[in-house]
Amino acid sequence: MSELFGPGDGASQSVDWSSLCPYCDGELPEHPSTVLKELRTAVDARSQLHPNSGLSLNPLHRRTTPVTVSLSYCERHDFETTTLRVAEKSHWPADIDFNSLPRRLVEHCASFEELIEDPSSSDFYLDVLRSLERFSSGIAGDLASFEKTGTGYYGYAGKAVILWSLTEMLDLDIIDSIHSIPTPVFLERVLIPEAAVLLIQEDLGLTREQALATKEKSLSYGSILFPEDDTINPRDVRRIVRNLQVADF
Ligand SMILES: [Zn+2]
Question: Which domain of life is it from (predicted)?
Fold first, then answer.
């Protein structure tokens, strides 16, 4: 451990260098996640202590070759210091019980059926209509933004569970269409974002407007914290929904 302590000088004594990243001198989170710790171990194994290099006053400064080795570590610690602070203040969940999502959505089955029947009150649906109008008038490009179609802090893992829950619950056929919109598009652009808004509203006790804003703001948080998850099996999700619906009869 002794190599962790450089010679030090007057300037370094007032700074707690161990709270800073030895690669970029950025601030490190007080409570690093397991992922961050693992990334750090991996980068440390591919770097050497390099104090007094002229690049940094940090006596714990480390050098990697190539410098890009530390990029993902630095991205992640930046996320854990800045984005997570916002998340904590806004009460975005750090853990999500994805197993509870099918049940929560099944409880709202009637609302989703009404939404399919008459989607005219959904901003997401109106947005799809605008896209289709643009398309038919020859304006190139589909302006559906990632923020709009995303599921906020539920991330990609949540999106997958929502997708398969809704598909089973509403008995959707992907080769079908809903109000002349291909079903996969209607799912992606209307039903999934509406489900995310509903769940966020319930989680945090927000108004619809607040939940819409939270969904957009928490998108990058969700995609980093809950990326695609190979353990989520569409067949399992669909079976859970089927069982819930049978039990409701
Ligand atoms: Zn860094």
Answer: Eukaryota
Backbone phi, then psi, for 33, in 5-degree steps?
-75, 170
pLDDT of residue 33: 87
Structure tokens at 8: 């030090």
Instruction: Report the C-alpha gap between 61 and 35 in whole angstroms.
Output: 21
What is residue 121's predicted lDDT score, i.e. its pLDDT? Answer: 95
In whole angstroms, what is the distance from residue 74 CA to residue 7 CA? Answer: 25
CA of 21 to the centre of ligand 1 (A): 5
Task: Please give the Cα distance from 197 to 232 (Å, whole number).
Answer: 21
Count how many residues are written for the chain: 249
d(CA 3, CA 20): 16
* CA of 23 relative to ligand 1 center, distance in Å: 5
Query: What is the reported pLDDT for 12?
Result: 46
Distance 1 CA to ligand 1 centre (A): 20
Query: How far apart are the CA of 77 and the centre of ligand 1, in A?
Result: 7
**Average pLDDT, 10 consecutive residues per value, the chain (249 residues):** 45 77 92 92 93 82 88 92 91 94 97 98 93 75 68 96 97 94 95 98 97 94 90 94 86
pLDDT at 10: 46
The CA 71 to ligand 1 mean position distance, Å, reads: 7
CA distances from 207 to 10, 69, 74, 199, 234 (A): 53, 43, 35, 11, 31
Dihedral through CA 72, CA 220, CA 142, CA 164, nearest 10?
Answer: 110
Alpha helices in 50-139 (DSSP H): 71-78, 84-90, 101-106, 109-117, 123-136
